Amino acid sequence: MSGQSKERSMKPFVVGASLLFFIGVVATVILPFYDEVMQRENANAKIKNYAIHSPEYRGRQVYIREGCHVCHTQFVRPVKADSSLGPVSVPEDYYHDYPHLLGTVRTGSDLTWVGTRWNEQWHRVHLRNPRQVFPGSTMPSYNYLSDQDTEDLIAYLMSLKPAPSTEGR
Amino acid sequence: MAAITSDENKAVRFFFYSSLAWLIVGMIIGLILAIKYVWPDFLVWGAFLQKYLSYGRIRPVHTHILIFGWLSMAYVAGLLYVIPQLTRKSLEHPRFVRSLGIIWNVYMILAIITLSMGYTTTIEYAETVWPLDLLLIVLVAGITYACFKTIAKRNEKQLYVSLWYFMGSLIWLPFLYIIGNIVTYFISGVPQALAGWFYGHNIIGLWLTTVGVGFIYYLLPLLSKNPLYSHKLSLIGFWTIATFYVWNGPHHLQNGPIPAWLMKAGVVPSVLLIIPVWTVLANVFGTMKGKWHVISENVPLKFVVTGAIFYLITCLQGPFQSLMQPSAILKFTNWIIGHAHMPLFAAFSFVLFALFYYALPTLTGRKIYSQALMNWHFWLSVIGFLIFAFTTWTAGVMQGFAWAEGKQYGVPFLEVVISLQPFSIARTIGGALMFTGQLIFIYNVRRSLKDGQLLSLEEKSSSTA
């Protein structure tokens, strides 16, 4: 007897709690997935669609392995704080990004279009000893990376440039 | 009230003690990170340490240990302890649950090793590789099974409000974990970021917050010896949090590459979260009515009430910074670091400290060794956190406005980094005080096991009533 009344009191609860949860999932995870802006690529996405085992692809893996995304973001917003960082990011730019490297914190500066700022030689010096270029910088020294990893990482960073068609967006 | 069986006691204590070990390890890594923020070559003694303790690799280790090792294991311990009390039914499968605890610790060790070796998915709070994700899903499913079975077989007819919160959280946790860790494995680009942030926000909102609120509702009447102010209010709180919290993921990409409709869909529910947090606070203040003087002599009660207040501040601050304009200044700055530590340390860790101090005597039969040390634990935690929070908030506002002035990369950006140094040093000091508080906590617990005064028979029966 009491068992039945107990069950009756738990079922609507379980159903209600699950339903509210899945409404939120549909709205904020599933619907955006099918939004047309998420379903197409643009010229920037094509640049970032690296062939597997190309230096840029391997460099991106180094970027991930060393956790560069922990301190550097890769998205430019239409706000004052991002005004000199280059073209504003759109969803299409990230079509091929797997995993995405948008980031959360700018302990270091944004790297969306870092390829337009420095040259390879600058990166070579800066990655090995950031404080040689920027006295007072808090970035770790990446002098423990192998030459191969360093060159791959630089190739990746240099590839982060907007396509000509998106300049001045 | 059901007496705690010996197997159940062992299972609860295993999770409790494990979580304490992870609290210390996680905070040590947090301190290393804070010092590296000031002195990037700290611990760069030889290539091995430089590589495996590199900032980018151990930052996810810090968050992972404290979310899954400390908070989640302590939460499981709390669930295993509180559910039998509220259902008057001994825990189902206590030995099985204890073996899950052993595997959980193995999971933690594997997670730390793989993350510091650089194996990461980059999805925040879901950085572990997929075999470990599957292992954690099995562990969570096992805990959920034991808890639900206990509730289903309960001897108490009424479902106390804490149980609502526990059951909701146990239903949501496996799903949101799967969305953050498994679904993100199969998608890319911005949709992956949205699925990731759905998880990243809700692991706080629908697991750490909701179970924590359940603990508040359990502890407050017991510690203040007043009945809960309003049962109805707490149910309104439950259903509003279930309705609004799930929508909060997109505000992590505020002003970013997402459609405008989604930004609005993410912000409006953030603001409406005022409702559930207000119901909790109204209930805390209502219950405390006429009992405020008890706070001065009751450290666990002090922890619960302070934790509830920090929870309120979190839920006032969060909606504010998710709005488009404040977000344009505060996003990506130190402000966010201060905000993220508030619910996890100052709100829900505090609730857990109270639960520990309350539950430990009933598990061991001995009182807490030192009241004075409990007070030291409280004040070091509060003052340390306030130093930590105010320095990160101030530093964040400075950063945000400096960037808006155009100091966005190169030498101008570096000037901002250098100007933050005094704040980073102060933050490290705040963190060190927080950590010292926890060392005192551990010492006090350790001493209680051996030298705590034995509970009298009378106290034994009243403490579990």
Automatic annotation (TrEMBL), chain A:
Keywords: Heme, Iron, Membrane, Metal-binding, Transmembrane, Transmembrane helix. It comes from Aneurinibacillus thermoaerophilus. The chain crosses the membrane at residues 12-34. One of its GO terms (molecular function) is electron transfer activity. Residues 54-161 form the Cytochrome c domain. It holds the Pfam family FixO. This is Cbb3-type cytochrome c oxidase subunit II. InterPro entries: Cyt_c-like_dom, Cyt_c-like_dom_sf, Cyt_c_oxidase_monohaem-su/FixO. The keyword Metal-binding applies. Gene3D superfamilies: Cytochrome c-like domain.
From TrEMBL, chain B:
It holds the Pfam family COX1. It comes from the Bacteria. Residues 197-465 form the Cytochrome oxidase subunit I profile domain. SUPFAM superfamilies: Cytochrome c oxidase subunit I-like (SSF81442). The chain crosses the membrane at residues 14-39, 61-84, 96-117, 129-148, 160-187, 199-220, 229-247, 267-287, 299-320, 340-358, 378-404, 424-445. Gene3D superfamilies: Cytochrome c oxidase-like, subunit I domain (1.20.210.10). Keywords: Electron transport, Membrane, Respiratory chain, Transmembrane, Transmembrane helix, Transport. This is Cbb3-type cytochrome c oxidase subunit I. It comes from Aneurinibacillus thermoaerophilus.
